Amino acid sequence: MLTIKNLRAHYGAAQALFDVSLHVSAGQTVALVGANGAGKSTLLKCLMGLVKPSGGTIFLDDQDVTRKTPARMVQLGLALSPEGREVFGTLPVVDNLRLGAIPLKLSRAEETRRMDEVFARFPKLKERHTQLAGTLSGGEQQMLAMGRALMAKPRLLLLDEPSLGLAPLITDEIFSIIHQLARAGTTILIVEQNAARALSASDQAYLLANGNIVEQGQSRDLLLDPALRAAFLGAASHDNPATSRLGAAGLTNIRLEKPPMHTNFMSSIASSEELSLHQLRGLQWTVRHAFEGSPAYRAKLEAAGITPESITSLDDLPRLPFTTTEDLRDGYPFPLKSVPFEQLVRVHASSGTTGKRKVLCYTQKDLDDWTDMFARCYQTAGITPLDRVQIAVGYGVWTAGMGFQLGCEKVGALAVPVGPGNIDMQIQFLLDFQSTVFCSTASMALLMAEEIHKRGIADKIAVRKIIYGSERSSRSMRRKISELFGGAELFDITGLTELYGPGTGIECPDHDCIHFWGDYFLLEIIDPQTLERLPDGEWGEMVVTSLCKEGAPLIRYRTRDITRIIPGPCTCGSVMPRHSRIKGRSDDTIIFRGVNIYPSSIDTILSSVPGLGSEYQIHLTRDAAGRDHLRLLVERAEGVGPDRTPELISEAGHQMKKQLLVTANLELVDYGSLPRSERKSQRIFDTRIDDEIV
Ligand code: ZN
């Protein structure tokens, strides 16, 4: 949208800007950071036509707008909220606001409409609309200056030092408004001395020192990359200010809001050879540890003719006996315990709906390892110490809440431990705490997304990432969640109670696969019927073997989750191995008239028909003649009327037939009419005799 090329400016003989080049794309928030006197305000004044540049060009959408008048720049879509607010103290608030739109010569009605919009964004200004601007507090004057700029409905909003001289609490408020403006689509160029603030509120940043751009890049990288951070922010106010560029530029008032933390949780393993060696050592350790520590494991290993010494390569893995859910239930409560009770510090249990719960025990090292793995997941998803993580998963004996919590605190982010359900409180916290990350099941995320949409608050919340797990999710469901949350990025996190808990792998930022932490466990894919190992790339049941788990090690544990190993390196650059998103569980595969159907393939088909919603139910029945019937109840997408029903049924039926080779009785229902749940929504209702599922 805005491109500045080689801009120069002088005040008399003194040069203030030296060939400054900069770019702002539409919809972006770009920060210009630098010390007092670095040339930041001069740059904004050149843009607004308040200072005539002595060289260089300013383009707005490819149009040369260098040296236009301030009034013309407002007409072209720029508006400035200047440093020091510059409100007219002897005029009331409303008159100050009117000044912002004067060059546009608005009708009275349009002016009133815009003022109402500004009041909606700044309720404090509405309360004080007749008050003289000079009697407002500093924060309120800042709001007035921003409101005045917004009266022009700018395409590009220029904010000069919005936090200058304000108390931290007021600064929070101002930045949360800036954030809302950005989410509502306003393009913003913000000038700030407070680098940490400006970087965490922007997409791109430029560092200006003595009239020169000395550093530029993505704000997140500048904030987190240790080398860039040293150069950009430096240990500016700590040990030796002059060593950083900001320090050299005389800017020594910068502190990050939190002390430097241990920020890297990625594995130090650099190659697949190194990983294999590490895994072999872990496997040997695990077999010996289980053999010596657990009578149950020892009996199984001996029956299979395995001694710890006989494990000499990773190829020995398939010789080891499987561990199953039944082993866990039969040996209730501590079947896999391989250390004395004195070494245990915690137990967790699965939510097991039938029979006995699966109980797992942990040593302190197990918990530390789990926490590090979870922190690595957060790091992969780009969560930083500046994030506020609202955790809406179960706390208690289940592993979920604990894992999300410990990992969050380890990363140094702010945890908001709400637990599942309680939609009103969740919404209130999203608004009041401006949580930036939301963690839940996919069903809960959908429920929240629809609630956010219903209340029309997408541009008032700050969620930019959603981490969800423990449940399959279709493409259209993901799309819907992201959209209704105002464009949040989704990350599918994996894990199971038996193997620490959630956090043993996560969708990567390229959104192409799940990376799993191969330095903590081995993953095999087997055919659930023949139990033979399948080659990489083929779908089958996931089997895991822990490499350093003390309390309850796992040897070839059958997870029942269906996935596949994706061979080859990932585009994101991680050396950690990867698998596809979980397709379903081997025990909830539907067998219908001899065809194996994973529920995820139904997700895929429904997602591919525009006009259908993401929620559905499958009802399987058997008639008197012994013939099976599949009835598929699907919601129409929001806003799609019943008149399109015949066409949608025909298309979905055709796709089912073509891709799954089955004929389904399709029925469409209104959007929102199928029940939603905060945990996992039940979608499959099978009332046939159970004889095929054994
Ligand atoms: Zn990746």
Brief rundown of the structure:
The chain has 694 residues and is of the alpha/beta class. The longest helix has 22 residues, at 272-293.
What does this entry look like structurally?
There is one protein chain. By secondary structure, the chain is an alpha/beta fold. The strands form 7 sheets. It has a 9-stranded mixed beta sheet with strand order 14-13-15-16-17-18-19-24-23, with helices on both faces. Strands 6-7-8-3-9-10 form a 6-stranded mixed beta sheet, with helices on both faces. Strand 29, helix 21 and strand 30 (665-669) form a beta-alpha-beta unit. Helix 12 (272-293) packs across helix 13 (295-303), helix 15 (364-380) packs across helix 16 (399-411) and helix 18 (442-455) runs parallel beside helix 19 (475-484). The radius of gyration is 30 Å and the shape is globular. The chain starts with a strand and ends in an 8-residue tail after the last strand. The protein binds zinc ion. Zinc ion is lined by residues 508, 510, 513, 515, 570, 572, 574. Zinc ion binds next to loops.
Task: Write a concise keyword list for the protein shown above.
alpha/beta; nine-stranded mixed β-sheet; binds zinc ion; GMP Synthetase, Chain A, domain 3; Rossmann fold; 21 helices; disordered C terminus; about 700 residues
How many strands, what sense, and barrel or not for the largest sheet?
9 strands, mixed
Helix content: 25-40%
Q: Architecture of the largest domain in CATH? A: 3-Layer(aba) Sandwich
CATH superfamily of the largest domain: P-loop containing nucleotide triphosphate hydrolases
- For the residues shown, what is the average pLDDT? 86
Structural class category: alpha/beta
Radius of gyration (Å) = 30 Å
